[in-house]
Structures are given as structure tokens and as C-alpha cells.
Amino acid sequence: MLRDAQGVPLRLLPWTTAEGNPCYLSANGPDSRMSRLADEVEEDLLISVEHLLADAAKSLPPGPSADPKELRRMVACLAGALSATWRIAVSRGGRLPGADTGQPCEHRETELCGGKTCCRTCAQQLYL
């Protein structure tokens, strides 16, 4: 888990930079202005995912009659929705009580590598 200079865990935000790199927040607590904004964006993203899933289930015909272009568009939208949902899950999981005591990698050290969170020792990507 990434930490700020005071050792406080950084919050993974539900958005990325223009280059697709993760954004992190060092805040004074869950009631800060940026934390509340991140909470609102997460909620909006999850609502959008819910609507997308409902639309996909009812709008695409099964079998070979489905239009390949429409299928590709829907897969791209679903992939984006899955990515947003995963980022939110990682962020929320990192804020659970006791979550900052363990690391997903046995080496227990992380760093940013190529815009991704990776193990400092083995360079294994830990989060999207």
C-alpha cells in the first residue's frame, strides 16, 4: 500500500490521469472535500455500471444474429465498467479496518512502475 510522508495510506481514486495512470489521495480523513468528491464519483460510476449491465442484458440478441459492431462496442463498454468497478473495490478494500496491516504481495513493499502499483522486489502488478 502506498503511503504519504507521514505514513498514512493513500486512497486509490476512481479516476486516472490523462495517460491512464492511477491517481491517489492523501487526505486528512474520509470527510475531506476530495474524499467526498471521490465517494460521489464512485457512486456515479457504480450506478452507470448497473445501467450498462441492464442495457446489455436486454438489448443484445443472443446467438449469431447479434451485430458484430454492436458486440464490440458493448464489450468495450463492459470492459471499462469492469475496470471502474475493480478500481473502486481495490480502493474500498484498502480502507477497511486492518487493511493497511497486510500487503497483497509477500514482499510487502510497493512502488509505482509504469503508472501501476507493483511490488518493489518482484515487480508483480498488484492493482489495475
What features would you describe in this structure?
With 128 residues, this protein is of the alpha+beta class. The protein is built from 2 helices and 4 strands. Strands 1-2 form a two-stranded antiparallel sheet. It has a two-stranded antiparallel ribbon with strand order 3-4. A hairpin with a 5-residue loop joins β1 and β2. α1 packs antiparallel against α2.
Number of strands: 4
Strand content: 5-15%
Largest sheet properties:
2 strands, antiparallel
Kindly provide the radius of gyration, computed on alpha-carbon positions and rounded to a whole number of angstroms. Answer: 18 Å
Q: Which percent range fits the helix content?
A: 40-55%
Order of helices and strands: EEHHEE
Architecture blueprint of SSEs:
Layout: E1 11-16, E2 22-25, H1 33-59, H2 68-94, E3 110-113, E4 116-119
Antiparallel strand pairs: 1-2, 3-4
Helix pairs in contact: 1-2
